[in-house]
Design goal:
The complex is a heterodimer of chains A (about 90) and B (about 300).
Chain A: E1 29-33, H1 43-47, H2 69-73, E2 79-83
Antiparallel strand pairs in A: 1-2
Chain B: E1 4-5, E2 8-9, H1 25-37, E3 41-45, H2 49-54, E4 66-68, H3 74-87, E5 95-101, H4 102-107, H5 110-118, E6 123-129, H6 169-175, E7 179-184, H7 188-200, E8 204-210, H8 214-217, H9 224-233, E9 239-243, E10 246-251, H10 260-263, H11 274-297
Helix pairs in contact in B: 1-7, 3-5
The structure holds thiamine diphosphate (TPP), iron/sulfur cluster (3 copies) and magnesium ion.
């Protein structure tokens, strides 16, 4: 990584810029939603610590770290954690 | 009108890409607290996991103005911002939200927070209670529960984890005349409403939110919400508000669940004996009884 130029007071000028950092690479299991089972209750969206589920309840694999909270919380067992393979 | 899902705003002021561990309760609480505060907010954060994982220079997860100073002075920084906003005539339109870890609140930041509350400064302080100094590698704090094993209260032959019960921080803040609430990430809407109330309160507000930490408590990353929920159901972390010294329990668990169910899921308690479990259960029962009495009598808690 290129060394950043240090700003005065270490001010960061670009809000929300951690989106440059794709944390999806951390994942060893990926959540896969079965749309037929999903009732759109919104619980998975509410409890994702990485804000990696959108308003249509699709997972954003760029950021999903694979914690499995969404699969665990889904009352309809609509999300399965599937092993990531290279 | 703002768009919501299950009553929760879909606006996100805490960006993805942060470096919290997978399944981190702190990250989830920050996300919801910001939804409560909205766009016209200034955030102060003490040194902690949240500070470190949200601002790996030159990146930031925050979509509102944010400042970090040191570990012990979040409430002092917030006091300055509060005064500055008043002087500029902008206090009414701005939410001032402060985050501190339990170490930064119960222990090292207590002096700054107590001083700010005593001066009747106006801000909403959210203590992210993951029950140890996590960012530096799981050292015990005043918030660590009795018998929890940490790197400075290691379970072994000499001691069986921490030897003291948790400090009653919400009551300490209630004694300062603050609006006080406890919250749990299992109930995001309740947490959001309490943060909103704390921000609207004319004076110091203190909200202690219970945020399980898979790394420090040693449980699987997908169990964060299950553990938070069990903490509520077993009455380990009761949900209440204290307004003008009067306590109201926000919600009561529907059935009796022994604390063992909560303890057994976490590596930090794996050494506890049956006698020690009884000691924890007894403490929980006594505390719950005390809360029920305080609520019933409607007498000032302090
Ligand atoms: C004066 C001072 N002492 C020690 C530290 C090192 N330090 C940084 S964060 C931290 C622990 C924070 O614990 P807590 O407040 O509970 O937040 P958590 O990381 O658990 O979210 C410590 C000891 C520091 N930054 N400044
Ligand atoms: S929790 Fe399950 S049912 Fe609810 S929106 Fe998510 S996937 Fe659909
Ligand atoms: S696995 Fe975890 S990070 Fe990924 S979408 Fe589900 S809750 Fe979010
Ligand atoms: S150590 Fe705990 S609190 Fe800190 S980022 Fe990891 S899970 Fe979150
Ligand atoms: Mg902590």
């Amino acid at each position: 990584m290129k060394k950043p130029k240090i700003t005065v007071g270490a001010v960061i000028e670009e809000p929300g810029s951690t989106i440059k950092n794709k944390t999806g690479g951390w994942r060893s299991f990926r959540p896969v939603r079965d749309k037929k089972k999903c009732t759109k209750c919104g619980l998975c969206w509410q409890f994702c610590p990485d804000n990696a589920i959108n308003e249509n309840f699709d997972v954003n694999y760029d950021y999903c770290k694979g914690c499995g909270i969404c699969a665990n919380i889904c009352p309809f067992k609509a999300i399965k954690m599937v092993k990531e393979e290279k | 009108m703002e768009k919501t899902i299950a009553g929760i705003s879909t606006e996100e002021f805490f960006a993805s890409g942060h470096r919290a561990c997978a399944g981190c309760g702190v990250a989830l609480a920050a996300r919801h607290a910001l939804k409560a505060a909205g766009k016209n907010t200034i955030v102060v954060t003490a040194t902690s996991c949240l500070e470190v994982f949200s601002t790996p220079y030159p990146e930031t997860s925050w979509r509102v103005p944010w400042i970090h100073g040191a570990f012990e002075n979040a409430a002092a920084i917030a006091s300055g911002i509060d005064r500055a906003l008043k002087t500029l005539g902008k206090r009414k339109d701005t939410n001032l939200l402060v985050f501190g870890g339990d170490g930064g609140t119960f222990d090292i930041g207590l002096q700054a927070l107590s001083g700010a509350a005593e001066r009747d400064q106006n801000f909403c302080y959210v203590c992210l209670d993951n029950a140890a100094y996590m960012n530096t590698g799981i050292q015990r704090s005043g918030a660590t529960p009795k018998y929890a094993s940490t790197t400075t209260s290691p379970a072994g032959k000499i001691i069986h984890g921490k030897t003291e019960f948790k400090k009653p921080m919400p009551f300490i803040m209630a004694a300062h005349g603050a609006y006080v609430a406890t919250a749990n990430i299992t109930f995001p809407l309740d947490f959001i409403n309490k943060v909103k109330k704390g921000l609207a309160f004319d004076g110091p507000a203190y909200i202690q939110v219970y945020v399980p930490c898979p790394t420090g408590w040693k449980f699987a990353n997908n169990l964060t919400i299950d553990i938070a929920k069990l903490a509520f159901e077993t009455k380990i972390t009761p949900l209440y508000e204290i307004e003008k010294g009067i306590l109201t329990i926000s919600r009561k668990p529907a059935k009796e669940i022994p604390v063992k169910e909560y303890l057994k899921l976490q590596g930090r308690f794996k050494h506890v004996t049956d006698d020690e479990i009884r000691d924890i259960q007894q403490h929980v029962n006594n505390e719950w009884k005390r809360l029920l009495e305080l609520e019933k009598n409607k007498s000032r808690v302090c």
